[in-house]
């Protein structure tokens, strides 16, 4: 109900809703600069953003074939996918 796209994740901060995982990470880093969630060095921060953006928008085969499941041990499935899908 909170996310305009009807999906997760969604971060609600008072009257602000942030619904994209990369945008959420950037928003949290902005709100808590004392936590050093991004590198202080300008070049390293740019590199970190490039890596995050590349993972966020790229690696289509990996993201489509290997959806995230932080609770399951899917190592056997990973080996099978690796063998069956050259693009991985």
Describe this structure in words.
This protein is extended. Helices cover 49% and strands 7% of the residues. The chain is mainly α and 88 residues long.
**Structural class by SSE content:** mainly alpha
Helix content: 40-55%
Regarding quaternary structure, what we see is single chain
Strand order of the largest sheet: 1-2
What does the main sheet amount to?
Answer: 2 strands, antiparallel
Mean pLDDT: 88
Shape: extended
N-to-C terminal Cα separation, in Å? 34 Å
Radius of gyration: 17 Å
Low-confidence stretches: none
Beta-strand share of residues: 5-15%
Q: Let me know the number of strands.
A: 2
Helix count from the secondary structure assignment: 4
Order of helices and strands: EEHHHH
Features:
mainly alpha; 4 helices; single chain; extended; 88 residues; 49% helix; two-stranded antiparallel sheet
Write the layout of secondary structure elements.
Layout: E1 11-13, E2 16-18, H1 21-31, H2 42-57, H3 60-65, H4 75-84
Antiparallel strand pairs: 1-2
